[in-house]
Amino acid sequence: MSSGASAASHLVVQFGGVMLGLRAELVERVEDHQTPRPLPQVPSHVVGVVALGEQTLPVMDPARFLELPAAPRDDHQRRIVVVAVSGMRVGLICDRVFGLRELESGTVTPAVLQGEALRRFVVEEHDLAGMRVARLDLPGMLQAARLARGGSA
Amino acid sequence: MSAARQMALSRAEPFGWALELDRATGILDAPPHGQAVVDPASSLPGTAERRYFTFAGGGVILALPAPVQIAAVERAVEPLPEFLAGLESQGAAGLLWRNGAVYLVVDPHLLRAPAAARPSSPGS
Asked: Which of A141, A146, A139 is nearest to A121 (CA)?
């Protein structure tokens, strides 16, 4: 996914009814949805772990973390997007994956998305032929969402 | 291929905990007096019965939901993913997959008695 992607190339996904752009070089792969095995005493956005090959992948629900409304569930469209940031590999539950899009300065549009938690991690909003796509600060969100040593999200 | 190790496996659906048996010095049906008990499943309903694990040097007692299965486990324990490193605060040092379920592998060195943990006392 990262090879050949320009700095403005983003994987556009949807969760919580919002379309968001994830920097393509941070996206490792897109997996079919599988139900994570839950873990005890973790925040609700940490939905569990899945086995991915020989490795265990923690899975988070970004819609819960960003306090977005739950979208109607459609397991045919739902995917786990595997991202790798600062030594962390995490699966993000996405209601839908649209594919790669270029997010450029010429498409930036005034911010209208609401929600304090969401706004904290939206860098800017773009208008792509009528589709509003929010560019997500993925490293910032994962740092805030992780279960850090000596504390928790 | 990793060598098989004897592990204590405890499940309180949908969660699981595992402990290498050679880390423990005893398994009791009741907690010894005067020592703090760490009970990671304390907030789960319907899991009243426990087995209590003691460790060398005293310190905390680990309570795990009964029944506890003793099994030889060949699969290696995976270290905690970086995103979940904070699970150390629960005493977890790794993850173990077994029969499609995942277990938090408890390291007694990481167990810390929470402030709310009450030392058991005679008559309590």
From this structure: A141
Reported ipTM: 0.89
Cβ atoms < 10 Å from Cβ of B38: 22
Give SS3 for B5. Answer: strand
Q: How far is B4 from chain A (nearest CA, A)?
A: 18
**Which runs of E-coded beta strand occur in chain A?**
9-15, 18-23, 27-32, 46-52, 55-60, 79-85, 88-94, 96-102, 108-109, 122-128, 131-136
- What pTM was estimated for this model as a whole? 0.88
Nearest CB among A41, A58, A153 relative to B40 is that of: A41
Give the residue from chain B lying closest to A39, CA to CA.
B15
Contacts of B15 in chain A (CB under 8 A): 38-40
Encode pLDDT of B99-123 as tens digits: 999 999 999 888 876 654 445 444 4
Please tell me which residue of chain B has the smallest CA distance to A42.
B87
Look at residues B65, B34, B70 and name the one whose alpha carbon lies nearest to residue B52: B65
Query: Rounded CA gap, A117 and A134, in Å?
Result: 13
Chain center to CA of B59? 14
- Chain centroid to Cα B84, Å, comes to 17
**Residues B45, B41: Cα–Cα separation, whole Å:** 9
Tell me the per-residue pLDDT of A126-141, one tens digit each, with 9 for 90 and over.
998 889 999 999 999 9
Cβ distance A147 to B90 less than 8 Å, yes or no, reads: no
